[in-house]
C-alpha cells in the first residue's frame, strides 16, 4: 500500500468518529488506512481542544510548507547559467555541460526558469 496524505474529508471523518468514541482501528478500517497512520495523524494534530479537522489540516499544511527542501540552484550555479545564456548557449547545452563537469544535473526547462 503506497502512502498518500490524508485529505480534508478524511480528517473530518476522523474528528466525527473520535467524538463518537470509535476506536482508531475502526477508523483506519473505514478509511482503508493503517492504524499507525491514523494514530500518527491524531497525535500530530491534536490541540488543546482535541482533534479538530480544520486545525489538523492547517497543522499539516504548515509542516509541509516549513519542511526543509533541497536547494539545487545556488547563486553560484545561477551565475554560471546566466553567463552561458549571455554567451548564446542553449538550455540543452548548458544542462549538458553542467552535468559533464559534475556540477549539477538539471533539466533544460529548469534553466529557462533560472533566466527569468
Describe this structure in words.
It is a single chain. The protein folds into 2 domains: 8-66; 75-114, no CATH class. The chain is 65% helix and 3% strand. The chain has helices spanning 8-20, 24-31, 35-45, 53-66, 75-86, 91-100, 108-114, and strands at residues 46-47, 50-51. Strand 1 (46-47) and strand 2 form a beta hairpin. The mean pLDDT is 90.
Summarize it.
This protein has 116 residues and is mainly α. It has helices at 8-20, 24-31, 35-45, 53-66, 75-86, 91-100, 108-114, and strands at residues 46-47, 50-51.
List the helices and strands and how they pair.
Blueprint: H1 8-20, H2 24-31, H3 35-45, E1 46-47, E2 50-51, H4 53-66, H5 75-86, H6 91-100, H7 108-114
Antiparallel strand pairs: 1-2
Helix pairs in contact: 1-4, 2-3, 3-4, 6-7
> How many distinct domains?
2
Separation of the first and last Cα atoms: 40 Å
Strand order of the largest sheet: 1-2
| Mean pLDDT metric | 90
Molecular shape: elongated
Low-confidence stretches: none
Q: What is the element string, with H for helices and E for strands?
A: HHHEEHHHH
The portion of residues forming beta strands comes to under 5%
Q: How many DSSP helices?
A: 7
Q: What's the helical proportion of residues?
A: 55-70%
Structural class by SSE content: mainly alpha
How many strand units?
2
Radius of gyration: 23 Å
Task: Tell me the major beta sheet.
Answer: 2 strands, antiparallel
Which key features would you list for this structure?
116 residues, mainly alpha, 2 strands
Amino acid at each position: 500500500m503506497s502512502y498518500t496524505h490524508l485529505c480534508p474529508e478524511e480528517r473530518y471523518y476522523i474528528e466525527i468518529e473520535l467524538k463518537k468514541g470509535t476506536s482508531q482501528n475502526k477508523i483506519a478500517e473505514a478509511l482503508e488506512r493503517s492504524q499507525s497512520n491514523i494514530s500518527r495523524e491524531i497525535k500530530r494534530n491534536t490541540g488543546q481542544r482535541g482533534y479538530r479537522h480544520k486545525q489538523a489540516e492547517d497543522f499539516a499544511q504548515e509542516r509541509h510548507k516549513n519542511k526543509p527542501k533541497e536547494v539545487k540552484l545556488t547563486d553560484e550555479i545561477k551565475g554560471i547559467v546566466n553567463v552561458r545564456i549571455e554567451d548564446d548557449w542553449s538550455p540543452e547545452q548548458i544542462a549538458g555541460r553542467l552535468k559533464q563537469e559534475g556540477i549539477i544535473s538539471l533539466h533544460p526547462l529548469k534553466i529557462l526558469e533560472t533566466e527569468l
